[in-house]
Amino acid sequence: MRTLLYIPVIHADSDLGTIAPFVNRRSVDICGKKRWLRHKEVVTVFWDKIRNYFDRMDPNGLKIYQDGLMADGELGRRIIQEGAGRGSPNHQIVLDLVMRGSMIRKTEDVELLKKEFHRILQLAETDLGIEEKLAINLKREGEQLMAERDRFIAETINRTLQPGERAALFIGVFHNVLPGLEKDIAVREVKRSSKVKEYFEAVISCADDEAFERLARYMVSDI
Q: Where do runs of H (alpha helix) occur along 10-130?
């Protein structure tokens, strides 16, 4: 039996690098400053709960697959260290796990990541006058790239996670990796991906305050 802890990720600003200002501007335009600031508070506590969960665990021997990680070994560790240094709670948790005996594994295909980054930059730099038409094409391209990345990640886990091993996958909430995993991999969702996705959709769809706060309470609940 192989086991996989599944951690649905909502990225903090420190994960987004140069596109963080663009994401913040668009998000405030969509859902308003008050809702977006409340969302950031929720994300901070969400990561605190994830951190507490792993602090209670003996991670020795745990294999770690990470959204956006296209290398393992020394290069992979350097990538994680740089992310942790920028303040990424996700990378800080992974770095702590590695220091306590876990091992990172190459998770993604570098060419697919380059395409995704280029697409996001295009969207960020789009002139407002032609934004709607271009955004449709970029959205379609993004959905295709996401599906390709999900297939690659699932195939990587299937191939590299050995019988008897346990692993953790930190992956963006809108990814859909689970259907591609082989049946002998037992998955435990540390936070239910469907609820985390529902929460984020409530943020960006301007859901009413009651629905939003109900989902926010799940996000910050103990694990």
A: 13-16, 20-31, 33-55, 73-85, 89-99, 110-124
